[in-house]
Amino acid sequence: MLKRVINEVKKYEYKLDLLWLILFPMFNVIYFITNHIHKEGFDLTIALDRMIPFVPIFIIPYVYWYLYMIIGFLILSLNDRKKYMRCILGLYLGMFFSYTIYLIFPTEIVRPTVTGNGILSSIVKIIYSLDRPFNCFPSLHVLGTYFIMRYTKKENSQYVYYYTQTVGILIILSTIFIKQHFVLDAVASMLIVELINIIVKKISEENLEKYLKIPYEIVERLTHKSQKFSEVSSNEKE
């Protein structure tokens, strides 16, 4: 899937649209900061959470999320630039909103003790060690996944649609089955996506075009400055 998408991107006329994805890891830096602010948080455990067992194999779709997001945005960009832009803006708005919630309403989940030295258990232990049990509500994994699911349409490609929906459901379930999130975290994330979609759908086509042009304008300015610098350097040498 990834190789096929990359080959399409190489032939794609609007490659610079993808520069908008650079902000994604930058936003994750904010997550890291907010994850280390609080020492305790609210417990949102409900009866359903207690009924759901810890299932280590779900760490596979949980970790795959990072690749899923890249593939999802590449596909959206190739299929419909404006839809891609709406999804990107929606995701960043959702992340900003989530970080605000983390600051004013910190949550904390009690994780199970992971036993065994198998590869799945080992990966879970690594995730637990890197990600403190805070910033649960809402789930960024679910937020990003649900955005991709909502913006992938069956009419564009049935294969892509079934891929994003099936894998997306597994990722959402994984957040709960490896005890990274409460059930309410997942529900809240999907509700936030629906609310933000109402907002981004009101963005005019004209403004979407302006946002899409930003990376091209930046690259053009940098290229122009680079050429000027080269000319000045050449003149000085002469």
From TrEMBL:
<keyword id="KW-0812">Transmembrane</keyword>
<protein>
    <submittedName>
        <fullName>PAP2 superfamily protein</fullName>
    </submittedName>
</protein>
<feature type="transmembrane region" description="Helical">
    <location>
        <begin position="160"/>
        <end position="177"/>
    </location>
</feature>
<keyword id="KW-0472">Membrane</keyword>
<feature type="transmembrane region" description="Helical">
    <location>
        <begin position="12"/>
        <end position="34"/>
    </location>
</feature>
<dbReference type="InterPro" id="IPR036938">
    <property type="entry name" value="PAP2/HPO_sf"/>
</dbReference>
<feature type="transmembrane region" description="Helical">
    <location>
        <begin position="54"/>
        <end position="76"/>
    </location>
</feature>
<keyword id="KW-1133">Transmembrane helix</keyword>
<dbReference type="GO" id="GO:0016020">
    <property type="term" value="C:membrane"/>
</dbReference>
<feature type="transmembrane region" description="Helical">
    <location>
        <begin position="88"/>
        <end position="106"/>
    </location>
</feature>
